Model the fold of this input.
Amino acid sequence: MAVTAKGPDATTIDDLRAEVEAFVRDHAGNRFPGSDRPYFEAPVLGVAAADDPIFHLYKQVVGPFHGTPRELLPSAVSVVSWVLPIARATRRSNRPERALPSRPWAETRSFGEPFNDELRRHVQGWLRARGHAAVAPVVAPGWSRVDQGPMGRASTWSERHAAYACGLGSFSLNDGLITIRGIAHRLGSVVTALPLPPTSEGRPGVRDHCAFYGDGSCTRCIDRCPAGAITEAGHDKEKCNVYLETVTRATLAGPWGTPVPGCGLCQTKVPCEDRIPPRVKVPAAPAAPRPPPSAGR
Ligand code: B12
Ligand code: SF4
Ligand code: SF4
Done:
């Protein structure tokens, strides 16, 4: 228990959850420009122990540059991760799209992520104010993208891997993390010295929530991808990145004023969009030519 100016601090996971929920619900940054519509719906929180051995495994499955909680904060005890589900109206707007993201999706990627950064800083500051050391890795000095890791594009702190450690979801054919609120979301996390009860017990297997790996019944995201970046061999990050840079950004950034429009077609109009998909045969999409399986990731 940390000791603050007011005496022993007994911050609980319920206090933290209430704070994150209130910030997401009330903060003006979580609103489309000139509107009261939010980018993100109510968050889902999870916790992992900072000394969970999985963080050392990430030196292999992400790369040796991926930080452990204790490398980021020597006094770390817990890792807190949150899922920010993308608003239903935004997801629905992206469903009819075939090549480019809808404008609400592009605005959520461009302006919702800066709000997520504010949430990272807010949680970090809120914990520190209660006497608990805290670091939000993605907004801390030293965080960077890594373009050529052993698994291709990566970073020095992967939000999906933090969320996986907390038991919040499992990876998918297209790399996205499928949570109880589905795959259309954004993630954030904070490493802290505050002891919190882990939610990682019974965490799913690495790809348990994806129906492709369950019984092969779903390949819907393959057909959704306008770049041919998803095949039964997985997600080709380079094809995806080239599409994001040379097609969606090049086409939409100027006209819409959305500097990073993203794409996310593989995260909408798919059975895992807003839930863990049922293991049922998904009706086949109209036959479309598929690119050959890609050897590289
Ligand atoms: C680099 C990056 C990209 C790159 C590469 C993506 C990638 N697959 O890593 C590119 C530019 C292609 C990209 C694209 C997009 N991105 Co991006 N991106 C990132 C970034 C900055 C770093 C990701 C990272 O470090 N990855 C590490 C690598 C190693 O992860 P990986 O290859 O997916 O991991 C595999 C292995 O680890 C493997 N594995 C093998 N063995 C084992 C064993 C164990 C135990 C485990 C756990 C795993 C494992 O399984 C994983 C899945 O196959 C994060 C932000 C962040 N700091 O995390 C956002 C992030 C991943 N992006 C995000 C999003 C939403 C997108 C886009 C939809 C764009 C958009 N908004 O419209 C697309 C979707 C592409 C896709 N289908 O994944 C979200 C993902 C949320 C989600 N739903 O999962 C993130 C987390 C941003 C955020 N704050 O929420 N992105
Ligand atoms: S659309 Fe189907 S195959 Fe693709 S990630 Fe979702 S469940 Fe897996
Ligand atoms: S974000 Fe777009 S280009 Fe990248 S894998 Fe998903 S559907 Fe394909």
User: Anything to note?
Assistant: The radius of gyration is 19 Å. The pocket of iron/sulfur cluster (ligand 2) is lined by residues 172-174, 210-212, 218-221, 270-272, 277 (CB under 6 Å). The chain is about 35% helix and 15% strand.
